[in-house]
Amino acid sequence: METSSKKSFMCGELNCTTMNTQNPNGELAGSVALVTGGGQRMGLAIVDELLKNGAFVSLIDINEETGNKAIRELEIKYKSSSSRLLFVKCDVTNKIEFEDSFKKTIEKFGKINIVVNNAGIMTKYITSWELAIDLNYKAVVHGTILGLKYIENKVDRNSAVINIASIVGLSNTVLPIYQSTKRAVIDFTKCIGCPFNMKAHGNNVRVMAICPGPTFDGFDNNIDEKNSLEHEIKELIINGEETPNQNRVITIQSTDYVKTAFLHAMKNGQSGDVWITENKESARLAHFYTQY
């Protein structure tokens, strides 16, 4: 549910200003991040948080107009930040293009510390199933593998691969393709990031996932539309349950909550962690049980 929006992520929503808001002493000062799907919505919000905390950012997006627009807005907000930003037009389902985006990032910034695999699409039922599998799952796997290849292999709290999944991947919904691809991202992240694999393969780079609940910007002044969308999402989620839980709370949150969860995971997360951010609540760890 986290990848679509009925509102565009405009400059006003980024609180653009001509003041210099970059923080050279921020939590991620000097780090270099690559963010897929970084031109809008959650991806753009994460790019914004990275810049706010002193990072250099390679913004990856398939839409050149969207990407360039995002860069312009960020350069206004973070005055003189062009030296800290790079836009790369890239289809992450194209293996050659995707790896080239890593090489271009290193050419400009000299390294990569953080990879955020955010690009994805929300599909209902079996619509666009092949694209959804390629984008929501296969590209995330490839992005993780590239992250482990290009991020320096050392213990570093400012280095990680962050895969954006969804609470749908933790639920029983009526969204067979979307749910299964997001659940696959969760399972892949847990497995590749588990202590056994970290030790067995000599990997020191953390791999974590974030599962946002419904996340949209632009509903502050449109309560009726917000309530209608929350009801629609709730029906999609609970009607896949054996006994639908009519009391389940579904509250749309802004991208600010995903920003906060991202920074929390970077500061506190362990490899293999799956973090939940939903219903305007603080980020929390998902817990899994091995019995079946």
Write structural notes for this entry:
With 292 residues, the chain is an alpha/beta fold. The chain has eight helices and eight strands; from the N terminus they run E-H-E-H-E-H-E-H-E-H-H-E-H-H-E-E. Strands 3-2-1-4-5-6-7-8 form an eight-stranded mixed β-sheet, sandwiched between helices. Strand 4, helix 4 (129-150) and strand 5 form a beta-alpha-beta unit. Helix 4 packs parallel to helix 5. The longest helix has 22 residues, at 129-150. The protein starts with 31 loop residues before the first strand and ends in a 7-residue tail after the last strand.
Oligomeric organization of the protein chains: single chain
Low-confidence stretches: 2-21
What proportion strand?
5-15%
Structural class of the helix and strand makeup? alpha/beta
Number of strands: 8
Strand order of the largest sheet: 3-2-1-4-5-6-7-8
Major sheet details: 8 strands, mixed
N-to-C SSE string, H for helix and E for strand: EHEHEHEHEHHEHHEE
Radius of gyration using CA atoms only: 18 Å
Give the proportion of residues in helices. Answer: 25-40%
Mean pLDDT: 90
Query: How far from one another are the termini?
Result: 27 Å
The number of helices is 8
